[in-house]
Write a structure and sequence with these properties.
Blueprint: E1 8-11, H1 13-17, H2 27-38, E2 44-45, E3 48-49, H3 62-68, E4 79-80, H4 84-93, E5 97-103, H5 106-113, H6 117-134, E6 137-143, H7 156-169, E7 173-178, H8 185-196, E8 204-208, H9 215-224, E9 229-232, H10 252-261, H11 270-284, H12 291-297
Parallel strand pairs: 1-2, 1-9, 3-4, 4-5, 5-6, 6-7, 7-8, 8-9
The protein binds 3-hydroxy-3-methylglutaryl-coenzyme A (HMG) and magnesium ion.
Magnesium ion binds at residues 16, 177, 179, 207, 209, 240, 249.
């Protein structure tokens, strides 16, 4: 089996990891977390979102956080943007990369951003135009690619439709989100093969939540299918406020352990991520869910 030699990790902990946390965290804590992540060798760290503070209160201080993080050369700090109001805020903050997010499920689209999939794509048109004019790169998410909390099974054709629309609008990369973590390896492979007919593999990323413990197996399948970009969150924190019961993203520590064990390069230092993961889990007041993070915390050496 041929695997990609180099894998890019998109660290989503400061956004996806924290957006669902009820305990208010100060901007200083978020800044410290991102600065620790910046020292790990990561090339992409999602720094927050410019969404409605009524919908997602935990991200309300993204402007303050973004202004104060230490921006390291060669590291991108994308933020989520749902509409032109969010785009105006992102531009005012001076961001260089954003992510727009649409869904493969109509019901999830309504619950998450209060509009249909088609309406969300319309909303992104002025956002894309503003981004292009300002030289801002745009990543595109598709949610519920392997299941929806409201509709259950999602047809791969619906995923392909939304992914194609985002790619056609100018997103440089499409991240396929298993928002509730119900995906399994055979279904993941079939979906990735369908998507690959319309979107180059080098422009496709995977984003697994680990609710059912399937994420690493699914990531292995993605690597076998020739993908080389993986989203994950330090400490395995996270969830989506509009996908009740879904647990966190696959933990960056666990992903790194697997990739490095396979001899693949990421440029990321596992111990640095583990340190950042321990810090943020303690701040949130939750035990570490990352298995590899736990081993490092307990300093177990075999
Ligand atoms: P709405 O209520 O339909 O919007 O929400 P509206 O245009 O009617 O505005 C209502 C109020 O929100 C107004 O304020 C607007 O000014 C304000 P008011 O007059 O009531 O004081 N507003 C904003 N404020 C700040 N920033 C903005 C903004 N837009 C409007 N950008 C809206 C529509 C999209 C805004 C809302 O539904 C929203 O913010 N949703 C975000 C939900 C979200 O962040 N979900 C989590 C991220 S997605 C995810 O986790 C999945 C992913 O990880 C991949 C995966 O796992 O699958 C990416
Ligand atoms: Mg997510």
């Amino acid at each position: 089996m041929k695997y990609p030699a180099d894998v890019r990790i998109v660290e989503v902990g400061p956004r996806d990891g924290l957006q669902n946390e009820k305990k208010p965290l100060s901007a200083e804590v978020k800044i410290a977390f991102i600065d620790m992540l910046s020292d790990s060798g990561l090339r992409s760290i999602e720094a927050g979102s410019f969404v409605s503070p009524k919908w997602v209160p935990q991200m309300a201080d993204t402007d303050k956080v973004y202004a104060s993080i230490r921006k390291k050369d060669g590291v991108s700090y994308p933020v989520l943007v749902p509409n032109d109001k969010g785009m105006a805020a992102a531009l005012a903050a001076g961001v260089k990369e954003i992510a727009v997010f649409a869904a493969a499920s109509e019901s999830f689209s309504q619950k998450n951003i209060n509009c249909s999939i088609a309406e969300s794509l319309e909303r992104f048109k002025p956002v894309m135009a503003a981004a292009s004019a300002a030289g801002v790169r745009v990543r595109g998410y598709v949610s519920c690619v392997l299941g929806c909390p409201y509709e259950g099974e999602i047809a791969p054709a619906a995923v392909v439709r939304t992914a194609k629309a985002l790619y056609g609008m100018g997103c440089y990369e499409i991240s396929l989100g298993d928002t509730i973590g119900t995906g399994t390896p055979v279904k993941t492979r079939a979906l990735l093969q369908d998507v690959a007919r319309d979107i180059p593999r080098e422009s496709t990323a995977v984003h697994f939540h680990d609710t059912y413990g399937q994420a690493l197996a699914n990531i292995l399948v993605a690597l076998e299918e020739g993908l080389s970009v993986v989203d994950s969150a330090a400490a395995g924190l996270g969830g989506c406020p509009y996908a009740k019961g879904a647990t966190g993203n696959v933990s960056t520590e666990d992903v790194l352990y697997m990739l490095h064990g396979m001899g693949l390069k990421t440029g990321v230092t596992l111990e640095k991520i583990a340190e950042a993961g321990r810090f943020i889990a303690a701040e949130v007041g939750k035990p570490l869910v990352s298995k590899v993070g736990q081993v490092i915390e307990n300093s177990i050496k075999w």
